[in-house]
Structures are given as structure tokens and as C-alpha cells.
Predict the 3D structure of the following.
Amino acid sequence: MVRLLRGARRRFGLVAEVAAYGFWLLIDVAVTVSVGSPLTAVAGLLVPVLVLLRRRDGFAVVPMAMGAIGTSIAVSAFAGATQLLVMGGGDSAFLSFAEQLALAVIVVVVLHRCELRTALLLTAAAAVAIVGSPIVRTGDTGLGGPLGLFTVLSALGWGGAVAIGLVLRDVATQRRAAVEDTRSSERMELARELHDVVAHHVTGIVVAAQAAAVVARTSPDDVDRALAAIEGAGTDALAAMRRMVGVLRGQDAEGARTPGAELREIRTLVGRFDPEGTLVRLDADPGLEHAVLPAGVAATGYRVVQEALTNVRRHALGASIVEVDVRIREEALLVSVRNDGVPAVPVVPRTGSSGFGLVGMHERVEALGGFLTAGPTAPGVWTVAARLPLQGAR
């Protein structure tokens, strides 16, 4: 019994629909017994069964709707032919309430799920079946008696089903649009991520290649070490790009979206930027590398440092000191990168080289409820600073 109740809870929609059909079918059977018109019960049973078939996996809605509507119209045609062959008008026994309910469900379903043109055609056919059945089967279109009232109620029922179907269709359309917007935003975010990854690593390769050229002229014995640095930077770039492409293909987990999604990777990032350890000074709170932070905050903090170091390579080639500071203060992650060597006249990047850069960082930081500043803080000194709140971060 308990298992049966659990199954009914999981399939509440099916149970409720079957119960509604059963209730009205009992009324149809009572009418059949009292008046002696078995076609009422036949229509009230056959059409709902056809409508329920749509719940089977892989069962197409359109053939189901066509079959159910066609069955209803066939019953009405048979009833009309009977009235022509038998002297005297027909009676209301041919009007099935379970059948009418099933046809209304069809209207809602096709308007909700089907392509617009198909939905409109099936809705019009359902109107013929729903509104036409009391007219054809009873032969009464006036408003002076109960039979005319059935015609009006059938028309109102069809109109109500159309309204419900259109509302559900509009909700589904808005939901699809929202999903598409989310996917579009995600693709743009991934494009920015891929740009940042490639720009950082390729810039490192270019700088290492330039250094190798100088070493080859001044200290040939050190060429192997310079070439090894280039090889390592290229390997890192390929690995990072594989991770990003894996995300674009849906092969990677959410946490792998950004290489180095943890703060402890900042030390590795600094090591790649300054292998000799003479240019960059990293200051961080003790134990910060093992702190548990929201994934978006940790990844964005890493990205801010990465973008700032990339800009140092591009625009501050004469820098003698780069200070990276990462701390937690007042429920927020504070990240700053300060460097000298900035020329008095800012270097204008070549067309196409500026990319997203700090603009992307602004978007990421603001999306987490924080803020980012980037600009000169003293003559020849440039500072990038970000504050990322830990509470309410997404």
C-alpha cells in the first residue's frame, strides 16, 4: 500500500487526469443505462484512452491528437446519420462529458507543445469536435433548453482550454528564451576565459622567446634553460586550452572552468611569471592558500592576478618590482597587484591586442558584488585592486 501511494505521488498528474476521466465516465455510463445509448460510454472511454497514450515515452502528440479528434468527429457523424435514418430527433445521450474533457486536454497539449501551424490546425479541428458534438448529436442549437446550454458550455470549455494552452505556450517560450540568454552569456564568458588563458600564456611564450634571443647572443650556455622555459610555457598553454575546450564541449565539470580555480595556484602563477624570484613579491595571509572560499571568488581572485601580470608583461617591460597582495579582510577577499616601470605616456596597444582584458575582469568582479580599480597610483606606478565579498557570492 505504501509503495502504491509513493507511486501515485510521483505520477500525480497522471493519477489526477485518470480520476477526472473516471468521474465523468461514471456519469456517461449512468446516462447510457438510463437512456439506452451505448455510444455515449464508448466515446467517453475510447477518446480519453487515446489522449492518455501521449504519456507513453516516445509517443508522438500529433498522431494521438488526430486520432482522438477523428474518433470524436466520427461518433458525431454516426449520431447525425442516425438522426436522419430514424424518425424524430436524437437525444442528449450521445454527448459524453469524459470525451469533452479529453478533447479539452488535447487543445491544451497541442498549443503548449506543437509547432504553431500544427497547433492551430489541431485546435480548429478540436473546436469542430467539441462544439459540434452537442449540435450534431442532439440536433438542438437554440438557447431555450438544456441542450442549447450544452452547446454554449462546450464552446466556453473550448475557449478556456485555448486560453490555458496559450498561457502555457507563452511561459514555455519565455523559458526557452531565458535558457538561450543564459547559454549565450555562458558562451561569452567562456570566450573571455579562453581569451584570458591564451593571452596570458602566449604572452609568456613571446617574452621567453625574446629572452632566449638575448641569451643566445650573450650567454650561449644558458640557451637550453631559456628553451626549456619556452617549452614549459607552451605546455601550460596547451593544457589550459584543452581544459577550456573541454568545457565548451561539455566534457568538463563546473569547477574546472578556470585553470587554477584555487588561491593556492596564485603562487604557481607567480612562479611561472618570475622563475628567478627576483621581480615579484607575493604577500598573503598565513593559511590563505588553504582557505575554503566560494568557487567564483577564488577563481576571480586568481584571474585578477593573472590579468594584472599579463599587463605588466605587455606595458611595463621596465618594471623592477611587482607586488602581489592577497588577503581576507572584513568578509571580503582583497587582491592587489602593484608595479612600477609604467611609461609617462601610456603605451597604446595595437589594434586587436587589447581584447577584453580588464573589461572582462570588471564584469566578473561586479557580477560577484565587488568592485575593481585599475590605474596609476603614483608617478610610474600602476595598481590593479579588487574587493570580492565572501557573503552572497554566486
User: Anything to note?
Assistant: Residues 207 and 392 are 39 Å apart (CA to CA). Residues 146-218 form the longest helix (73 residues). The chain is about 65% helix and 10% strand.
